[in-house]
Automatic annotation (TrEMBL):
InterPro entries linked: Haem_Oase (IPR002051), Haem_Oase-like (IPR016053), Haem_Oase-like_multi-hlx (IPR016084)
Name of this chain's protein: Biliverdin-producing heme oxygenase
Keyword set, alphabetical order: Heme, Iron, Metal-binding
Molecular functions (GO terms): heme binding; heme oxygenase (decyclizing) activity; metal ion binding
Naturally occurring in which organism (per UniProt): Amycolatopsis alkalitolerans
GO BP: any one term: heme catabolic process
Residues reported in the UniProt entry to bind heme b: 17, 24, 132, 178
Amino acid sequence: MAAPVTAAYTPFSTKLRESTRDVHERAHNSAFMDALFGSRLALPAYASLVAQYHFIYQAIEEASDAHAGDPVGGAFVFDELRRVPALAADLEFFLGPGWAGRIEPVPATLDYVRRIRTVAFDWPGGYVAHHYTRYLGDLAGGQAVRGLLARTYGVEGPGALFYHFDLESVPAFRKRYRGLLDEAPWDEAERQRIVTETLVAFEFNVAVLADLAAEAGA
């Protein structure tokens, strides 16, 4: 009698990456990012992206504070990843000391921040979904933007600090993060909820880029 077929185990980090591959590609290939990498955007248009990030990361990092003592969510709180101080410095570089009074969220950013505040403060899985979507992307593809800013616009220090992470090894950190995803005590239903919320987070990022493209005429 043949042995029963056992489904191969897929680590949660792999499932999350594969489930979001298509929407990640849509964000990467958006009109705004295409114009940015094609050197067709002026620096003020890029500064608008930085402004949107400030609103988004402020919400995520407040959620980090809310989960600092949580046995599950707390494992994904990393002070070394915090981006708000770097974003503030970048905005001061682009807009001057009064930058805080000169930035406004685009409509999609308002919706995105509202979603973070709805699901990421009281639900550890929701927090991880939004944390993963932004920070893992910054540690990977975001470094290409850092190189672009240096090559095309001559911006390497202030103005590009958002992409400077105080990590000994980015690949090692990403591996550690994936391990935390795989080891978290979520059952299959909760993992699926997190995948779904991660897809929602990616869609908000696509929408923010679409609003910025329209604003810039890209």
